[in-house]
Amino acid sequence: MDMNPNRSLRVLFVPQWYPYGENRMYGTFIREHVHAAGLHDRVAVLVVTSRSDRWPSLHWKRVEDEGIPTFYATYGHSPVPKTTWPFFYVHLRRALHRVFREWGVPDVLHTQDLQAYSVIKALWPQEIPIVVSQQWTGFMERSLNRTQVRRFRYIFRRASRVLAVNKFAEVDYRHYGLSASVAWLPNTIDERIFGAPKDCRREPWLLHASGFTPVKRVGDVIRAFARVHLGRPDAVLHLVGDGECRADMERLASRELPHTGYRFHGLLSKAKLAALMRRAAGFVFPSAAETFGCVLMEAMASGCPVLTTRIGGIPGVVGEGEGLFVDVGNIDEISEGMRRLLDGTHGLDMERIGRDTRERFSHVAVGRILHEEHIRAVHRSMEPTLAEMAGTQTAEQVAQPSDTTGHRLFPTS
Q: Which residues make Cβ contacts (< 8 Å) with residue 38, sequence separation at least 6?
């Protein structure tokens, strides 16, 4: 096999979450990873989802997503009780091998979270290096049950690389007694959408965007803004997104604020969200659980100052001096931060912060990380054979390519 670190690989993504049909915002962060990887490697996507009908046939669809071959395989539930899972594995295996026939056998298979358990099982006995993206908040929330811990142990033992979007995820893995070859994989940004603002005109708006789940603490945003609005009646709170808590939040806003003081937008396209970010005085995101915080990255790239918490992976996205930080649930701190955002007294250099954010999380930068990690996975999978060929050299010494000075091109982890 070609050991050149710049070699273009064939990488198949099999994500747990991915945009599909009406769920166009579902798993968009994975799609961004796919397109970033596509700058350096030949990539394709296999999305396996279930249908509501009770007929276990496999429906198949192939589309070209901006040049990325994307295969959608949907299966119905088994008509025989307690046999849906066996049918799922059969269909997943069929779908994988159909992609192999139509597109080619990948050098690396990149999957995600608990989906990796099913993918590894379905691949057996075929040996393809497995890379796993870990993005689920369950680890940091300490919410895994025994079955999930057992499955993640199985995944981590067999994965060549585990790529966590939470920069500090290894602390959470150790809590469950799990170990793996882990690296940080930041989410990436579409710079065509979240670019530098063309002007610095800011409206007296504060913006929040999320999936309206309890951990997003949308109620804290509304209650804090109600205090601020008493002294700033011209200010408006814009809330973007949808989810289980939206109806409750709309009722709370109607009690706490005049109808001119807030607006619920529902789900918006990335382009429309970016337009709001380029006009808002600040983005408010006091989350209680976050592995990364894509919207924070997007707001900063759009020149919008952010207010957030130091929870989970957020400090890997918003460094010191790049945003205003508050404690989770502290309404006093949130309302004071909101006033500073509206008054422009936050002291943040948004021109520099926006430029740095766009550079750090660009498709080019993150795509290079993905390429290097996929190369590492291939090398790692070859270690036993290479060590056997090298005699006294260790597998690590052989598998890690060197430059002309003798330095390792890829650090071990």
A: 67, 68, 367
Dump pLDDT digits (tens) for 63-99.
999 999 999 999 887 777 777 777 788 889 999 999 9
Q: How far apart are CA 360 and CA 296, in angstroms?
A: 13
CA nearest to 280, candidates 251, 307, 309, 253: 307
Return the number of other C-beta atoms located less than 10 Å from residue 57's C-beta: 11
Q: What is d(CA 375, CA 9) in angstroms, rounded to the nearest whole number? A: 8
Tokens 């025994």, residue?
146
356-383 average pLDDT score: 92
State the span(s) of the chain assigned CATH 3.40.50.2000: 10-184, 205-360
Dihedral angle at the C-alpha atoms of 152, 156, 158, 164, nearest 10 degrees? Answer: 110
Distance between CA atoms of 214 and 93, rounded to whole angstroms?
36
Token pair in block for residue 157? 């033992």
The secondary element (H helix, E strand) that includes residue 13 is: strand 10-14
Taking only the tens place, the pLDDT of each residue in 107-134 is: 999 999 999 999 999 998 889 999 999 9
Which CATH fold would you assign to the domain 10-184?
Answer: Rossmann fold (3.40.50)
Third-level CATH fold of 205-360: Rossmann fold (3.40.50)
Cα–Cα separations (whole angstroms), residue 277 to 292, 298, 377, 407: 18, 8, 38, 44
Helix (H) or strand (E) run with residue 364 in it: helix 363-390
In single-letter form, the type of residue at position 314 comes to: I
Give the Cα separation of 95 and 301 in Å (integer).
38
Backbone angles phi, psi at 25, to 5 degrees: -100, 0
